[in-house]
Structures are given as structure tokens and as C-alpha cells.
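Now read the record:
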Amino acid sequence: MAELEWLDGGITAVPGIHAGGVAAGIKSGGKKDLALIYSSAPARVAAVFTANQVKGAPVVVSAEHARGGTAQAILASSGCSNVCTGERGIRDAREMARLAAELLRIPATHVLVASTGVIGVHLPMDRIRAALPKLVKSLSPQGGRAAAEAILTTDTRTKEAALRLELGGRPVTIGGIAKGVGMLEPHLATMFCFVATDAGVGRGPLLTLTRRAVDRSFNRITVDSDQSTSDTVAVLANGLAENRPLAAGGRGLRQFATGLEAVMGRLARMLVSDGEGATKLVAITVRGAASHRDALAAARSVANSPLVKTAINGQDPNWGRIMMALGKSAARVDQDRVAIAFDDERLVERGMLREGARLDRLREIMALPEYAITIDLGLGRGEERVLTCDLSEEYVRINGKYTT
């Protein structure tokens, strides 16, 4: 068996995982807006939430439940974020967990909840109450796509990924779904990512690996530099693969970490490529920085710059905007050492336009749906990469009328 074997589907590719999605009437037009993921066996849980100081009620409740270390279900709604809704919002989030738990016959503390959508609006709990029995009945090993659809907001397509690997001679599966294409910037970003695995992993190692995978995937993407109030990444490990327990520092744990990072990395890439109004996916790599921290700061500054992103949209090789973004970052920059390349075409050397740079070739590269911008600061060995997208008129149209 290949070390990493990519599979069709997403979270329900994992043995013991059932999912479903229905239209509860939270969103208009009969769109699916209520999703449920259920593990037939209690699972270890690791969860990471938004770093925003303004947090949604579901984040508060789910963080409490995740601290217990065990979960068996995730209930997510879209169309209303249940953020800035006071004590009523907390009560509603707790009620969502309780109602799902009663129908599934599990403890309420074993249910995580998540909501996404407009801020400052209360959940239509009467509609959620009415839809939950139907949602539970819809649970199936084929329901992953329906769940992936039900969590979408301004996304244009579902995001699913799954793979299989071998640990100690036993096949182990990791699968997930994700959403979020705006308010998307490091330290999570208006996004949900729900991952499941049948691997047996202790809670401590699972939490460590989840945080690391999030840092190397979702914390390396940006659409618009805004940080959401509802971000949630949750990983359920139900142990049904019956592999030998993964020990800290062991080869099995390292292999599992590789698989987890691969799934999250693929989902993160899908998020950026579906960024609100996006037409381009661009990898910004900074190397030669004085430190990895500097490399990340510089890459994020370029990736988040509205002027760089609009130039990407307009297919304009305006390298001066990249220099500007580098200079305003927290990274150490010596402009006389900077080199910039678009794919294989070197544009800037020693901080100046390279003699012989082919602007026609640069425009060809920038017309592609995906390409890379590589920046060498010439100061050290630090290197980091951030995925970004262009900023278009469509992004303004979507967000200018989001609540209307």
C-alpha cells in the first residue's frame, strides 16, 4: 500500500463516520444549512478555535466540551453565526448540543456545535428544532457530501479530502470537509474544518498534531486578511482501525502526522482557490530571510497587500508593490539584496528590475490560474510559504451586500 493513498470522498470515507445535511430554513432558497457528523464509537477529540477576541457562542460552548477530551458528534449550521448574541446565544448553542445528543443518545458534552453566517442575529431555533429529527435520520456513510454542502456560506463548491495510510500493518483512514472563502486570514479564518480518523491516538498527541497541522495549513493561507469570530477545526479519532497506540516520537505517530497535514493542506488549498471572487491562486514563497519568523512575516505582508492582490487580478507585473509590502512588514529587509521571480522568470535582482526581464513572459505567467511568486531576501536561511488569491470586483460585490 502506498504511504499516502488519496481516496474519493471526504469525512465519511472514515470507517464508523456517518454524516448528513438538510435544509432547516436558516438560509433562503431551500439550500442545505444544517449538517451533522456522527461517530459510531466515542472518539478522542482535538479542537482549535479562532484567535479573534470576539468569539461566537458556539465557539465558547464547543471549547468547553472539547476540554473533556471525548466527542461523538459535530452539529453545524450555516446562514447565522450566533455571534454577539449575548446569553441567549450561549443558551441556543447549548440547546443545539442537547437536542442532538438526545436524538443520538449520547452525552450533550460529547457534541460540538458550530455556526457560520451573519453576525449579530439570533439562530432560528424553532426551525433547527424541527429539522433535527430529519437530520439524524439522514445520517449515512454516504452523507459526507451533503454535510459538506450544508456548511457552505459564500463558497461556490464543497471541499472534501480523504486518504489512507498504513500504520503498523493496519490501514488507517483520515478524511475531512471544510468551508470558508472570505474573512480568511492566518490564525484560522472564517472557516470550518471537520476531520475524522479511525486511528487510535491519545488525546495529548492528537491535540499536538492537530495544532501543528493547523499551523502548517490553515495558518498559511489568506483571502482578505480578516479574521473570523467562528473558526473551528475539530478532529475526531474513533480508534476503529485498532492500530497499536501511537506513541510520542514513534514512526507511526510521524506517519499519522504526515497524513493529517496532507488532508488539512489539501483542504486549505481548496479554500483559497475558492476565495470570494477569486480567479487566481498564488503561492508566495519567501526564502533567504534572517529567520523563519521573518520569512512568514514577509510572505504574509505580500499575500495580504490589497495592492499586490489587485495587481494579480489585473495581471499587472507591478513588482514595486511587492517591494512596498516587504518593506512594511515586520521582517528585516535590505532592499539591495531582494530578488523576485514569477514562476521561472526572474524579475528583480538586487532590488531593481533585472536587465533583460521579459515582461511579455511575466504577463503570460500572470494569465495562468495558478503560479508562484518567489522572493529571496538574501539575509539568511529562513523560508516560508503562504497561499493567497487575487482581489476582484466580485469580492467587493459579494461583501458589499452580504447582509442584504
